[in-house]
Each structure stands twice: as structure tokens, then as C-alpha cells.
Design a protein that fits this description.
Elements (H helix, E strand, L loop, with lengths): L7 H9 L5 H19 L2 E4 L1 H16 L11 E5 L26 H8 L3 E6 L33 H9 L4 E6 L5 H7 L2 E4 L19 E6 L2 H11 L29 E5 L9 H16 L3 E5 L7 H16 L18 H12 L2 H14 L5 H21 L5 E5 L15 H6 L5 H6 L3 E9 L2 E8 L5 H15 L9
Parallel strand pairs: 2-3, 2-4, 7-8, 7-9
Antiparallel strand pairs: 1-3, 4-6, 5-6, 5-10, 9-11, 10-11
The structure holds glutamine (GLN).
The site of glutamine has 13 residues, from loops.
Length: about 475
């Protein structure tokens, strides 16, 4: 197995036995990144020197007899939504093209404490609004299984980087599916943790009540290791949860015997591609064979999740994006003659069409006379969905579904049809509305394209979720076809 296609926990074992140096690992990844980036465009900025330097430091430490942490010196990519001093943080937007944050985000601060090597900052849909990186102001990333397809979005660059071996792991963010869907499209593991589990400090805000950062990795064990590093209370984020530190690897290795896996009675699989349904059904059979019980649960309001999300998320976005006013940071129109023109022209020139659409939708839904009809009503439906998940988790350990109704779609295929993209979020959005954790784990292939299985867990139930996903991963032992590059 190539070093750049080896999970971090295995590489860590190998280096502890003296079979490989951390510098060799970093050189393999950086070399792979440089060789493939021209075709993939996973990154908006790359930092090979940082990655190699962190690896050298890890080797030195090891030579002095110190015990290394699993992430020390490992080349890891970070979505370009996180503030990292000395790097541009564009959030996929022309508006922030030259923005360099003067401080460090909570997530990358913790990764730095764990000794990671930043290999690059990954491409994304502008302000994380989208499903294929096609809304990036800097052009789309490509799917390493088929270069004519998107890698998913909005954390698509993180996904293509990990799948192609340009980074050993990456961090993404998920507001309505943006970690899980690209993980599914590229055959990797991605987890959206419980809302509040990971700090949002220094992570550019899209919809603050739904945004959550999480790992995107080659396997489930690595996802647990990365979450160990980035989770935890942060007083700088007022919604950060005061949960005690947990070891998310604690239950890896358990089996599926007697575990209760829920399937949603109201889940409309008729909207899904038959190849996706086939993989999902085979995955359920496998869970059963491994001793799990499949139990039907009812979530009667799940059909309203997409509509609810596409009110709440744009409302919060329209408020959050008010800070891009041409005054404080980023784009500033040179021609404006007065303050109003400065606002109008800076926003008009700096923001892309999808972002403008969301601001308009949100501003409309929050305007006087419409607030009760749209935003308030959406919050009520969200509460019902939350309560229905809570009731379901009294009966089951996890809830299974496909991640996305289709495998990766073609670049340009959904251009000009935002509604099609919105509807395709139907399976991922409910977890964000409910605030619960959700993991995407490779479930199979539709031809050459990967298809993920989604498992949802109860609030702060990540340790159990990892153990179930890990057991599934082991049972499936998926043999992947070769990449396109
Ligand atoms: N595709 C969804 C959207 O466009 C989700 C994005 C996300 O999770 N950041 O809003």
C-alpha cells in the first residue's frame, strides 16, 4: 500500500516500529499532492514546507526518545473556512480572496497542539453554500474516481484531497451535509459531530445554529483519532458544549451482535438512484448478517426537513454575511462615491450568484410580515424533527440511510438548477436540524463511483457511532477499484 493511501493510525504504528520515518510519509504525501493537484484542484493554497517541517520535528522528537502523538508530523488538509495565521482564508469567495486572518481558529489551534503538518487549505463552495465545489469562485475540484464528476460539496476539496492521497486526512464543515455528502462521493469517511462538540471559533459562519466541523479520513479509526484532537469546550464559542473529554476510539472493535439499527419508515427512497438503493439494501443485509437487528422507526416530519433547512440556513446566512460590507475586511469597491454605494458595489462585485440568492431568500423570510410565516414556522418544524429523533433513539442504537440520493454527479450537470441540489440534501439535512452526529462510511460502488452509508446517532453519542461504523467497515471489507489517477 502506498504511504499516501495508508490511514494515519497504521502509519503511526509503522513509525513507532521504526519501519518508516515521518519525513518519508510527508514527502510521499507532498509529492502526490504536487503530482496530482493540476488535475484535481483540491486546494486553494498549499503549504508543502509547513508539512515537511512538522514531519522533521516529529522525527527529531522521536529520535530523542519521546512518545509521539498519532497526529504529530502527519500532513493534514484544512478546509479554507478556518482562520490559520499566515494563510489566506478565502472561504471559496472572491470577496475574501486576499484575506489573511490575524488569529487561529479553535479547530486548527487544537490540531497545532497535536503537532499536525498543514499541507494545504482546501477548495469549497463559496461560504460553504453548495454541493459540488462548483460554487467556488476559484473553479471546481474534480473527483479522483472520475475527473468529469464533482467530489461533492461544500467540503469537496477536502474530500478529493483525502481520497487521492494529497493529504492523509482533512477537516471539513457540515451545515446540511457538507462533510458526509463529499465523503460519500469520494469513498472516504466523514463525520459531522454533535452540534457544540467542536469549536466554531475562527470558522467562517454560514448558518451558526447548524454549522459544525468534523474529520474526513481514510477510515473510521482515523476519524475517531481526529475527533479526539479537535473536540472539546471552547469558551470563545458561546454554543460550545461543556462535555467532558472522551476517547472516541474507546469502543472500536466491538461487534454488531444485538445492535439495533433503525430504518426510517417515511424515508422516500423513490427519489434515489436505483444503484444507490441497491448499495443501501446490501448494506442492511450485511448488518443483519453480522447480528444487528433492523427496526423500523417513524419520523413523520422528515419530509419537511429540506424546506425547513432552506428557510433557517438562508435566514442565518443573510444575517451572518451582513459583515461583508466593504468596510471591515475583504473586497472594497474602488468606484463607490458614498457609503451605500460602497455596500452595494462591494457585495455585488465580491459575492457569487448562489450566495446572493441565499442572502435574498433569507432577507425576504426575515422581513416584517413574513417572519412568523417562514422563520418562526421553520423553527417549530425543527423542534418537531428534534423530538421525533429523540423518540426514535429510545428504540435504536443508530439510524441508517443512504447519504445522498445519487453518486457523484457530472461537473456542470446541475448548473442553473439550485432546486435540484437543494432536494438532494434530503438525507443529510435532518441531522443538522436535530443537532445529532452523523457519519458517512463507504458502503459500495455504483460502477466506478463510491456510495456511502449514513449512520446517525443520538446527541453526544459519537463513541457508539464510531464503534458501529467501524464494525460495519470491518464486515464489509470493501475492495475499491483503482482511482482515475
Ligand atoms: N448543500 C447544502 C447547502 O448548500 C449544505 C451545505 C453545507 O453543509 N455547508 O446549503
Amino acid at each position: 500500500m502506498k504511504l499516501y493511501h495508508t490511514p494515519i493510525h497504521l502509519l503511526h504504528q509503522q513509525r513507532q516500529k521504526g519501519q518508516v520515518s515521518t519525513l518519508e510519509i510527508a514527502q510521499a504525501v507532498v509529492g502526490r499532492m504536487q503530482a496530482t493537484e493540476g488535475q484535481l484542484h483540491s486546494f486553494l493554497s498549499t503549504y508543502p514546507d509547513r508539512a515537511l517541517e512538522a514531519a522533521k520535528q516529529a522525527d527529531q522528537k522521536q529520535a530523542q526518545g519521546a512518545q509521539l502523538g498519532p497526529l504529530e508530523g502527519m500532513p493534514i488538509a484544512v478546509k479554507d473556512i478556518f482562520a490559520v495565521p499566515g494563510t489566506r482564508t478565502t472561504c471559496g469567495s472572491k470577496y475574501l480572496e486576499n484575506f489573511v486572518a490575524p488569529y487561529e481558529s479553535g479547530v486548527t489551534g487544537k490540531l497545532a497542539e497535536a503537532g499536525y503538518g498543514l499541507v494545504g487549505k482546501t477548495n469549497m463552495d463559496e461560504f460553504a453554500m453548495g454541493s459540488g465545489t462548483e460554487n467556488s469562485a476559484f473553479g471546481p475540484s474534480k473527483n479522483p474516481w472520475d475527473l468529469s464528476k464533482v467530489p461533492g460539496g461544500s467540503s469537496g476539496g477536502s474530500a478529493s484531497a483525502v481520497a487521492a492521497g494529497q493529504a492523509l486526512a482533512a477537516i471539513g464543515t457540515d451545515t446540511g451535509g457538507s462533510i458526509r455528502q463529499p465523503a460519500s462521493f469520494t469513498g472516504i469517511v466523514g463525520i459531522k459531530p454533535t452540534y457544540g462538540r467542536v469549536s466554531r471559533w475562527g470558522m467562517v459562519a454560514f448558518a451558526s445554529s447548524l454549522d459544525q466541523a468534523g474529520p474526513m479520513t481514510q477510515d473510521v479509526t482515523d476519524a475517531a483519532l481526529l475527533l479526539n484532537a479537535i473536540a472539546g469546550f471552547d469558551p470563545r464559542d458561546s454554543t460550545s458544549a461543556q462535555e467532558p473529554a472522551t476517547d472516541f476510539t474507546a469502543r472500536l472493535g466491538e461487534n454488531l451482535k444485538g445492535k439495533k439499527i433503525g430504518v426510517i419508515k417515511e424515508l422516500d427512497l423513490s427519489v434515489a438512484d436505483p444503484a444507490v438503493v441497491k448499495v443501501f439494501e446490501a448494506n442492511l443485509e450485511l448488518l443483519k448478517k453480522a447480528g444487528a437487528q433492523i427496526i423500523e422507526v417513524s419520523l413523520p416530519n422528515i419530509a419537511h426537513a429540506v424546506a425547513t433547512y432552506y428557510v433557517i440556513a438562508p435566514c442565518e446566512a443573510s444575517s451572518n454575511l451582513g459583515r461583508y460590507d466593504g468596510v471591515r475586511y475583504g473586497e472594497r469597491s474602488a468606484e463607490a462615491k458614498n457609503l451605500l454605494e460602497l455596500y452595494e458595489q462591494s457585495r455585488d462585485q465580491g459575492l457569487g450568484p448562489e450566495v446572493k440568492l441565499r442572502i435574498l431568500l433569507g432577507t425576504f423570510a426575515l422581513s416584517a410580515g413574513y417572519y412568523d410565516a417562514y422563520y418562526l414556522k421553520a423553527l417549530k418544524v425543527q423542534n418537531l424533527i428534534r423530538a421525533q429523533y429523540k423518540a426514535a433513539f429510545a428504540q435504536v442504537d443508530a439510524i441508517a440511510s443512504p447519504v445522498s440520493p445519487t453518486p457523484a454527479f457530472g461537473i456542470g450537470e446541475r448548473a442553473g438548477d439550485p432546486l435540484k441540489n437543494y432536494l438532494a440534501d434530503a438525507f443529510t439535512i435532518p441531522a443538522n436540524l436535530a443537532g445529532i452526529p452523523g457519519i458517512s462510511v463507504p458502503g459500495g460502488f455504483a460502477g466506478q463511483l463510491p456510495v456511502g452509508l449514513q449512520l446517525l446517532g443520538e446527541h453526544f453519542g459519537e463513541t457508539k457511532l464510531f464503534s458501529l461504523a467501524h464494525a460495519f467497515e470491518r464486515e464489509l471489507d470493501l475492495q475499491k477499484p483503482p482511482l482515475a489517477l
